[in-house]
């Protein structure tokens, strides 16, 4: 019942936000007839840039539409049939401010001037002439060059002559006023980043300024308007509502001030995207289909049909919320509320983005880009919600449903355990220490099988063989060369040599030193017949060796004491091939370890779940091994894990999707897909970064035609990154009891692996047989220094870091940073560079093994708190 109330409350809140954002605003009504419209009669698919012009019927229909709505129109060019507009406008009782386009092509200017002057001389409804439109602003003519054309027109015509420029051009070039009969000024506060609430006052201020500067000249506002769509410039937001607000307020003020003006413009002109950017298409009062874009007299609502969109977003949110709460009955109301807020916010945002995007003028290119971006948006939301789900279940669980409960058995009830230790080319002294720890186990019946596969140097494996012999009959050593199947092959070999009496198979890596009570504490869990796996976390004993290993240690802990704990709630842990116990009968019934997989441990665990068995996870350390010695090895280890995850997803896709029958439950399917989803997202993010660099390069090369991506598509990756960092900080601090320094170290180490994971994921989808890579322990560094090695294996990341920061810097220097989307895009480039910066940082730290990280060391009380937290009620 509480879930229903939470969903209802958040739904009401979401609808209220929609309603609040779409409150009707009463503005002054549009007058029955305005002074004038800027008039370009080009329709969809027509463009002067491509020399595709409207025919006379198109022009006639547009003029007919404006009849009775305006006193006059303003034209811009005499090309093609457009010089006939004055003659045609007379039929509809429209006066004309007749214009001619002037630019740097003086030969064409001369031809057009002749047509312009001839037409203006014979047309009785031309009330003023406009020679050139923003020619000085564009830098195509100097004031002196333009003055020649103005003087010619003034000498030939009986009507007032001027040229049209923004107010600041008139202020800068006072001398231009000597060659005109009136000041034709463009007042477009949007381009100057003025907030909608100040826009009309801004126009009045600038008109007053021009009146002071040119007291003898009439001021005509040759263009005044606001776009209905486009990029936000500083405080200026382009939207249909803001267009309506500005124009209705301006028209009311213009009547009070007795302005002569031409509203920019009558009809949307999609072709202007090629000269003014996307916003250029949206200045019309009527859209390209000649429909009113906003109400002229009724209250203004930003999204008129917002109730439908709100209803759709609530519907999507409720379905998503219900899916997230499947098998989540132990989640507290606070956790449900946390998820509900995120789900409803994401659904509302997604619906608004799609609505806003499809209300643009779409081309094949923008449709393709839109589909890609919307698909990316959905992907980001899915990843964000899965991260939120883990956050909620790690923090706000009422009680652990599958918490570890000790089971005690007498010695005569304890089954025999066969411990398998695979080894390949390992330092003999390390393996001997591992065997010595096993020899001290407090357990009545066990054997140890050491399988050294494919080690060629007898000086490496023979000392281990001799030590096994010295430990007694419980310890058996096998040296097999050749042996196929990598680690899985060695484990299958051991299984085939296991004592017939052994009922439990235990696996540890050759660097692990186990606690004496490991088997005695955990083997009794198999008393429950459905238990197929008992798993303890990996832990490490060399975390204080240097700063690099301290960072790695901090990064590893999040998985074992956050992710594995939440996965265990649905019997969906990732089995890892050390500190694991497996029921022998189960292992043999499913044909042992898969030699095709380079993460044979995780694959085996999934197969065991598919056969309906349970796993027990104990978030307590019973053995400690060694971490990778170098950054190169750290990256290779994570590459293998990520590549293996994709192998498993591909091989088990039908079971995970439910299209092939198994005993997997929905919660298990969810965790195996959602758990690896962040890695898949890293793969997709690499495509995003490459696309971002290409897009940025296009912006640098062709800034006039290539805008930054829409604001929402910049906000999404920023939101996901911020959310993930917030999650790491919060959960590490509250659930792992990490210090702030340890938390930052874990985040940096994790980010440093992002590109490695991305490469592994992409390779996993296009290849099948990447070789198994053993993580060396206690290995020599070779001829190259550790620093050189670390930097060499990070060259791709260093290159991408330089490319991202260079793109951000170049855009910041070359572009006007006066739009929200431009500023956000630069921030996106910097944020997307952070994982590559983390790689460089960790590479440098790894390169100095003498560097200590005492402030990163885990104190004994922190370790104890981890155990307590992992087994406590939320």
Task: Name the descriptors.
disordered C terminus, 874 residues, eight-stranded parallel beta sheet, seven-stranded mixed beta sheet, 4 domains, single chain, 51% helix, alpha/beta, TIM Barrel, Spore Coat Polysaccharide Biosynthesis Protein SpsA, Chain A
Description:
This protein is of the alpha/beta class and 874 residues long. It has four domains: 2-18 and 304-395, no CATH class; 27-281, TIM Barrel; 411-630, Alpha-Beta Complex (Spore Coat Polysaccharide Biosynthesis Protein SpsA, Chain A), CATH 3.90.550; 678-861, no CATH class. It is built from 29 helices and 17 strands. The strands form three sheets. An eight-stranded parallel beta sheet has the order 1-2-3-4-5-6-7-8. The protein has a seven-stranded mixed beta sheet with strand order 11-10-9-12-15-14-16, with helices on both faces. β10, α14 (458-471) and β11 form a beta-alpha-beta unit.
Q: Write the CATH homologous superfamily of the largest domain.
A: Glycosidases
Here the CATH topology of the largest domain equals TIM Barrel
The number of strands is 17
What fraction of residues sit in β-strands? 5-15%
User: Which word captures the global form?
Assistant: elongated
For the record, the CATH architecture of the largest domain stands as: Alpha-Beta Barrel
- Order of strands, widest sheet: 1-2-3-4-5-6-7-8
What integer is the average pLDDT?
92
Query: How many domain regions?
Result: 4
Largest sheet: 8 strands, parallel
Contiguous helical run count: 29
Give the class from helix and strand content and strand pairing.
alpha/beta
Enzyme class: transferase
InterPro entries: GH, Glycosyltr_2/OpgH_subfam, Nucleotide-diphossugar_trans
GO molecular function: hexosyltransferase activity
Catalytic activity: a 1,2-diacyl-sn-glycerol + UDP-alpha-D-glucose = a 1,2-diacyl-3-O-(beta-D-glucopyranosyl)-sn-glycerol + UDP + H(+)
